[in-house]
């Protein structure tokens, strides 16, 4: 009958359909596209996805993960010390903070603050043999380039 919805839209979602919806939405599909493939209403798909994100994804169990060795204040001190003196080493930071932490922890705190180690690039590490080969290559190329150039005097003299 036209004008009436199929009763399938009003039935409860099975576990399989919920899995399909969550999988497709996680992959970035639109609600309309998922609803068409699962043959459910957009509202049902949206409600299923919202319930999933609210109940499953954003719940963090208390006490999970390793215990913190540094406080937030010590974390800020690590970052501040690096900003004040860019040449400071991890060992110096560790001694200044006064907490027994591994260098990886210091590296992680600096990475969270978008600070990365940079070494200045002073010169190319060329050996004398490589310098000689490079000079020969440049001379060969320059000779080939100047052979293709045609010099024309475009000025007119009366």
From TrEMBL:
One of its GO terms (cellular component) is nucleus. Its main location: nucleus. It is found in: Nucleus. InterPro entries: Homeodomain-like_sf, Transposase_Tc1-like. One of its GO terms (biological process) is DNA integration. GO terms for molecular function: DNA binding. Gene3D superfamilies: Homeodomain-like. It comes from the Eukaryota. Residues 75-140 form the Transposase Tc1-like domain. This is Transposable element Tc1 transposase. It comes from Trichonephila clavipes. The lineage of its organism: Eukaryota, Metazoa, Ecdysozoa, Arthropoda, Chelicerata. The gene is tc1a_547.
């Amino acid at each position: 009958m036209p004008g009436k919805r199929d009763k399938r839209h009003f039935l409860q979602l099975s576990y399989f359909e919920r899995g399909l919806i969550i999988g497709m939405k996680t992959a970035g599909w639109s609600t309309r596209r998922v609803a068409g493939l699962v043959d459910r209403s957009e509202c049902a798909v949206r409600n299923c996805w919202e319930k999933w994100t609210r109940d499953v994804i954003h719940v963090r169990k208390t006490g999970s993960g390793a215990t913190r060795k540094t406080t937030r204040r010590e974390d800020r001190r690590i970052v501040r010390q690096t900003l004040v003196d860019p040449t400071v080493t991890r060992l110096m930071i560790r001694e200044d903070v006064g907490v027994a932490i591994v260098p990886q922890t210091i590296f992680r705190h600096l990475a969270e603050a978008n600070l990365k180690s940079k070494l200045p690039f002073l010169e190319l590490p060329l050996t004398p043999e490589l310098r000689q080969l490079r000079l020969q290559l440049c001379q060969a190329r320059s000779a080939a380039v100047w052979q293709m150039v045609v010099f024309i005097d475009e000025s007119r003299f009366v």
